[in-house]
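Predict the 3D structure for this chain.
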Amino acid sequence: MKPSRFWLGTTAIGLYLFLYAPIFIVTLHSFNQARFGAGWRGFTLRWYRVLWDNPQAWSAMQNTLILASISTLIATVLGSMLGYALHRRWFPGKRWVAWFLFVPVVIPDIVMAVALMLFFSLLREVIPWGELGMTTMVLAHVTFQIPFVALVVRSRLVGLDPAYVEAAQDLGATPWQTFWRVTFPLILPGIVAGGLLAFTLSLDDFVVSFFTSGPGSTNLPILIYSSVKRGITPDINALSALMVLASILGTVWITWLQQPHKAKEL
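Done. Predicted structure below.
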Protein backbone atom coordinates (compact mmCIF):
# COMPACT_ATOMS: atom_id res chain seq x y z
CA MET A 1 0.00 0.00 0.00
CA LYS A 2 1.32 3.42 -0.89
CA PRO A 3 2.09 5.73 2.07
CA SER A 4 -0.25 8.42 0.73
CA ARG A 5 -3.12 5.95 0.50
CA PHE A 6 -2.36 4.64 3.98
CA TRP A 7 -2.43 8.09 5.56
CA LEU A 8 -5.57 8.99 3.61
CA GLY A 9 -7.35 5.88 4.88
CA THR A 10 -6.14 6.45 8.44
CA THR A 11 -7.35 10.06 8.37
CA ALA A 12 -10.74 9.00 7.01
CA ILE A 13 -11.16 6.37 9.75
CA GLY A 14 -10.15 8.89 12.40
CA LEU A 15 -12.67 11.44 11.13
CA TYR A 16 -15.48 8.89 11.06
CA LEU A 17 -14.66 7.81 14.61
CA PHE A 18 -14.60 11.45 15.72
CA LEU A 19 -18.03 12.05 14.16
CA TYR A 20 -19.88 8.86 15.06
CA ALA A 21 -18.25 7.54 18.24
CA PRO A 22 -20.18 9.98 20.52
CA ILE A 23 -23.45 9.00 18.85
CA PHE A 24 -22.65 5.31 19.32
CA ILE A 25 -21.77 5.84 23.00
CA VAL A 26 -25.01 7.72 23.69
CA THR A 27 -27.04 4.98 21.98
CA LEU A 28 -25.15 2.26 23.84
CA HIS A 29 -25.78 3.83 27.24
CA SER A 30 -29.49 4.09 26.54
CA PHE A 31 -29.49 0.31 27.15
CA ASN A 32 -27.29 0.51 30.26
CA GLN A 33 -28.80 -0.53 33.61
CA ALA A 34 -26.66 1.99 35.48
CA ARG A 35 -28.56 5.16 36.30
CA PHE A 36 -25.46 7.30 36.77
CA GLY A 37 -21.88 6.94 35.65
CA ALA A 38 -20.25 5.55 32.54
CA GLY A 39 -19.74 1.99 33.75
CA TRP A 40 -21.66 -0.78 32.03
CA ARG A 41 -24.07 -2.59 34.40
CA GLY A 42 -25.95 -4.77 31.94
CA PHE A 43 -28.51 -4.57 29.14
CA THR A 44 -32.01 -3.19 29.77
CA LEU A 45 -34.94 -1.52 28.01
CA ARG A 46 -36.07 0.15 31.23
CA TRP A 47 -35.13 3.66 30.17
CA TYR A 48 -37.24 3.46 27.03
CA ARG A 49 -40.22 2.52 29.21
CA VAL A 50 -39.41 5.46 31.51
CA LEU A 51 -39.26 7.73 28.48
CA TRP A 52 -42.57 6.33 27.19
CA ASP A 53 -44.25 7.26 30.48
CA ASN A 54 -42.72 10.75 30.55
CA PRO A 55 -45.43 13.29 29.58
CA GLN A 56 -42.87 16.12 29.37
CA ALA A 57 -40.97 14.31 26.63
CA TRP A 58 -44.11 13.73 24.56
CA SER A 59 -45.18 17.34 24.99
CA ALA A 60 -41.73 18.53 23.92
CA MET A 61 -41.83 16.20 20.91
CA GLN A 62 -45.22 17.57 19.90
CA ASN A 63 -44.01 21.16 20.23
CA THR A 64 -40.88 20.34 18.22
CA LEU A 65 -42.80 18.82 15.32
CA ILE A 66 -45.40 21.61 15.29
CA LEU A 67 -42.69 24.27 15.40
CA ALA A 68 -40.60 22.63 12.67
CA SER A 69 -43.57 21.92 10.39
CA ILE A 70 -45.18 25.37 10.53
CA SER A 71 -41.92 27.31 10.30
CA THR A 72 -40.64 25.12 7.45
CA LEU A 73 -43.85 25.57 5.47
CA ILE A 74 -43.72 29.36 5.81
CA ALA A 75 -39.98 29.60 5.20
CA THR A 76 -40.11 27.32 2.15
CA VAL A 77 -42.78 29.42 0.46
CA LEU A 78 -41.19 32.77 1.27
CA GLY A 79 -37.63 31.57 0.68
CA SER A 80 -38.52 30.07 -2.71
CA MET A 81 -40.19 33.30 -3.78
CA LEU A 82 -37.17 35.31 -2.63
CA GLY A 83 -34.70 33.02 -4.40
CA TYR A 84 -36.73 33.18 -7.61
CA ALA A 85 -36.99 36.97 -7.44
CA LEU A 86 -33.26 37.40 -6.83
CA HIS A 87 -32.43 35.31 -9.89
CA ARG A 88 -35.12 36.24 -12.42
CA ARG A 89 -36.20 39.77 -11.52
CA TRP A 90 -34.54 43.15 -11.16
CA PHE A 91 -35.58 45.61 -8.47
CA PRO A 92 -33.93 48.54 -6.69
CA GLY A 93 -31.48 47.39 -4.04
CA LYS A 94 -31.31 43.83 -5.38
CA ARG A 95 -27.56 43.60 -4.77
CA TRP A 96 -27.97 44.71 -1.17
CA VAL A 97 -30.78 42.23 -0.58
CA ALA A 98 -28.62 39.42 -1.96
CA TRP A 99 -25.73 40.50 0.26
CA PHE A 100 -27.82 40.82 3.43
CA LEU A 101 -29.24 37.36 2.73
CA PHE A 102 -25.97 35.89 4.01
CA VAL A 103 -26.08 37.78 7.32
CA PRO A 104 -28.47 35.36 9.14
CA VAL A 105 -26.38 32.47 7.82
CA VAL A 106 -23.02 33.66 9.16
CA ILE A 107 -24.12 35.57 12.26
CA PRO A 108 -23.57 33.69 15.57
CA ASP A 109 -26.70 32.04 16.93
CA ILE A 110 -26.41 33.77 20.29
CA VAL A 111 -26.34 37.21 18.65
CA MET A 112 -29.40 36.43 16.56
CA ALA A 113 -31.21 34.93 19.55
CA VAL A 114 -30.64 37.97 21.74
CA ALA A 115 -31.61 40.31 18.88
CA LEU A 116 -34.87 38.44 18.30
CA MET A 117 -35.69 38.40 22.01
CA LEU A 118 -35.16 42.16 22.25
CA PHE A 119 -37.18 42.70 19.07
CA PHE A 120 -40.14 40.73 20.42
CA SER A 121 -39.90 42.57 23.74
CA LEU A 122 -40.03 45.95 21.98
CA LEU A 123 -42.81 44.77 19.70
CA ARG A 124 -44.95 43.79 22.68
CA GLU A 125 -44.88 47.41 23.82
CA VAL A 126 -46.40 48.47 20.49
CA ILE A 127 -48.66 45.48 19.87
CA PRO A 128 -49.81 43.78 23.10
CA TRP A 129 -49.85 40.21 21.80
CA GLY A 130 -49.02 38.31 24.99
CA GLU A 131 -45.99 36.47 26.30
CA LEU A 132 -43.22 34.69 24.47
CA GLY A 133 -44.33 31.29 23.26
CA MET A 134 -44.93 29.17 20.19
CA THR A 135 -45.79 32.17 17.99
CA THR A 136 -42.51 33.94 18.69
CA MET A 137 -40.58 30.69 18.23
CA VAL A 138 -42.18 30.12 14.82
CA LEU A 139 -41.36 33.67 13.73
CA ALA A 140 -37.80 33.32 15.00
CA HIS A 141 -37.25 30.02 13.18
CA VAL A 142 -38.69 31.42 9.96
CA THR A 143 -36.23 34.29 10.24
CA PHE A 144 -33.15 32.07 10.04
CA GLN A 145 -34.72 29.45 7.74
CA ILE A 146 -35.64 31.79 4.87
CA PRO A 147 -32.02 32.59 3.83
CA PHE A 148 -31.10 28.91 3.59
CA VAL A 149 -34.13 28.08 1.44
CA ALA A 150 -33.55 31.13 -0.77
CA LEU A 151 -29.89 30.27 -1.32
CA VAL A 152 -30.67 26.66 -2.24
CA VAL A 153 -33.46 27.62 -4.65
CA ARG A 154 -31.35 30.37 -6.21
CA SER A 155 -28.49 27.92 -6.72
CA ARG A 156 -30.89 25.55 -8.46
CA LEU A 157 -32.08 28.33 -10.75
CA VAL A 158 -28.51 29.27 -11.65
CA GLY A 159 -27.90 25.74 -12.89
CA LEU A 160 -30.94 25.68 -15.18
CA ASP A 161 -30.62 26.15 -18.91
CA PRO A 162 -32.59 29.30 -19.89
CA ALA A 163 -33.35 27.63 -23.24
CA TYR A 164 -36.22 25.73 -21.60
CA VAL A 165 -38.00 28.95 -20.65
CA GLU A 166 -37.26 30.51 -24.03
CA ALA A 167 -38.64 27.43 -25.83
CA ALA A 168 -41.86 27.57 -23.81
CA GLN A 169 -42.29 31.25 -24.59
CA ASP A 170 -41.63 30.65 -28.29
CA LEU A 171 -44.40 28.03 -28.27
CA GLY A 172 -46.87 30.59 -26.99
CA ALA A 173 -46.91 29.84 -23.27
CA THR A 174 -47.84 32.70 -20.98
CA PRO A 175 -45.47 33.68 -18.15
CA TRP A 176 -47.74 31.91 -15.68
CA GLN A 177 -47.85 28.72 -17.76
CA THR A 178 -44.10 28.86 -18.28
CA PHE A 179 -43.51 29.05 -14.55
CA TRP A 180 -45.87 26.25 -13.48
CA ARG A 181 -45.18 23.83 -16.35
CA VAL A 182 -41.47 24.44 -16.96
CA THR A 183 -39.70 26.41 -14.24
CA PHE A 184 -41.46 25.04 -11.18
CA PRO A 185 -40.95 21.32 -12.00
CA LEU A 186 -37.28 22.00 -12.69
CA ILE A 187 -36.66 23.88 -9.43
CA LEU A 188 -38.84 21.54 -7.33
CA PRO A 189 -35.83 19.43 -6.20
CA GLY A 190 -34.20 22.63 -4.96
CA ILE A 191 -37.38 23.66 -3.12
CA VAL A 192 -37.62 20.23 -1.49
CA ALA A 193 -33.93 20.34 -0.55
CA GLY A 194 -34.33 23.81 0.95
CA GLY A 195 -37.41 22.71 2.87
CA LEU A 196 -35.63 19.65 4.28
CA LEU A 197 -32.68 21.80 5.29
CA ALA A 198 -35.01 24.27 7.01
CA PHE A 199 -36.82 21.43 8.80
CA THR A 200 -33.52 19.99 10.01
CA LEU A 201 -32.30 23.37 11.23
CA SER A 202 -35.52 23.85 13.18
CA LEU A 203 -35.27 20.43 14.83
CA ASP A 204 -31.64 21.05 15.77
CA ASP A 205 -31.92 24.63 16.99
CA PHE A 206 -31.51 25.33 20.68
CA VAL A 207 -30.12 28.84 21.18
CA VAL A 208 -32.79 30.77 19.25
CA SER A 209 -35.54 28.55 20.66
CA PHE A 210 -34.29 29.04 24.22
CA PHE A 211 -34.32 32.84 24.00
CA THR A 212 -37.70 33.11 22.26
CA SER A 213 -39.65 30.37 24.07
CA GLY A 214 -42.15 30.79 26.85
CA PRO A 215 -44.27 28.71 29.23
CA GLY A 216 -45.70 25.64 27.55
CA SER A 217 -43.51 25.91 24.44
CA THR A 218 -40.57 23.70 25.46
CA ASN A 219 -39.16 21.70 22.56
CA LEU A 220 -36.80 18.72 22.61
CA PRO A 221 -33.48 20.65 22.55
CA ILE A 222 -34.62 22.79 25.49
CA LEU A 223 -35.89 19.71 27.35
CA ILE A 224 -32.60 17.88 26.85
CA TYR A 225 -30.62 20.92 27.98
CA SER A 226 -32.68 21.38 31.13
CA SER A 227 -32.42 17.65 31.90
CA VAL A 228 -28.65 17.63 31.44
CA LYS A 229 -28.29 20.48 33.95
CA ARG A 230 -29.87 18.23 36.60
CA GLY A 231 -27.61 15.33 35.63
CA ILE A 232 -27.65 13.08 32.60
CA THR A 233 -30.02 10.15 33.05
CA PRO A 234 -30.37 7.19 30.69
CA ASP A 235 -33.85 8.23 29.58
CA ILE A 236 -32.21 11.28 27.95
CA ASN A 237 -29.86 8.88 26.20
CA ALA A 238 -32.90 6.91 25.04
CA LEU A 239 -34.50 10.08 23.71
CA SER A 240 -31.29 10.99 21.87
CA ALA A 241 -31.06 7.47 20.42
CA LEU A 242 -34.62 7.71 19.09
CA MET A 243 -33.82 11.07 17.49
CA VAL A 244 -30.76 9.52 15.81
CA LEU A 245 -32.89 6.60 14.60
CA ALA A 246 -35.50 9.00 13.19
CA SER A 247 -32.76 10.93 11.37
CA ILE A 248 -31.36 7.71 9.86
CA LEU A 249 -34.80 6.53 8.75
CA GLY A 250 -35.53 9.94 7.24
CA THR A 251 -32.25 9.88 5.31
CA VAL A 252 -32.93 6.36 4.03
CA TRP A 253 -36.47 7.36 3.01
CA ILE A 254 -35.29 10.41 1.08
CA THR A 255 -32.59 8.33 -0.63
CA TRP A 256 -35.16 5.71 -1.57
CA LEU A 257 -37.46 8.36 -3.04
CA GLN A 258 -34.62 9.58 -5.25
CA GLN A 259 -34.01 6.17 -6.79
CA PRO A 260 -36.94 6.21 -9.31
CA HIS A 261 -35.87 9.64 -10.53
CA LYS A 262 -32.34 8.40 -11.07
CA ALA A 263 -33.62 5.40 -12.97
CA LYS A 264 -35.73 7.60 -15.27
CA GLU A 265 -32.78 9.91 -15.92
CA LEU A 266 -30.63 6.95 -16.90
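The chain has one domain: 55-265.
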